[in-house]
Design brief:
It contains 3 helices and no strands. It is mainly α. It has one domain. The radius of gyration is 14 Å and the shape is elongated.
C-alpha cells in the first residue's frame, strides 16, 4: 500500500511540473517557471523516496531527499521574492 502512495506522489508531482511548464511556455510568466522547478525537485524527492524505502532499503538516501526538498523550497521562495510587484 505504501509503495503505491509513494509512486502516486511522484507521478502527481511530475504531472504538475509538466503542466506548469506547458503553461509557462505558452505565457512566459516567470512565476510559472519557478513553480515548475519547485515541482520538478519535489518529484525527484518523491521518486527518490520510493527508491530509498522500497528498492534500496539498506542504503540511507534521506540526506539527498531532504536536500532536494530544501532546494524545492528555496527555489519557490526565490521565485516569489524575485517576482514580487
Amino acid at each position: 500500500m505504501a509503495e503505491s502512495v509513494y509512486l502516486l506522489c511522484g507521478l502527481t508531482s511530475t504531472l504538475c511540473a509538466c503542466l506548469l511548464y506547458r503553461q509557462y511556455r505558452a505565457t512566459r510568466i516567470p512565476l510559472l517557471f519557478w513553480s515548475t522547478l519547485c515541482f520538478a525537485f519535489m518529484a525527484l524527492s518523491n521518486i527518490l523516496l520510493f527508491v530509498d524505502i522500497i528498492l534500496l532499503p539498506n542504503i540511507d538516501l534521506s540526506p539527498i531527499r531532504h536536500g532536494l526538498t530544501l532546494t524545492a523550497a528555496i527555489v519557490i521562495l526565490f521565485g516569489l521574492i524575485r517576482e514580487r510587484t
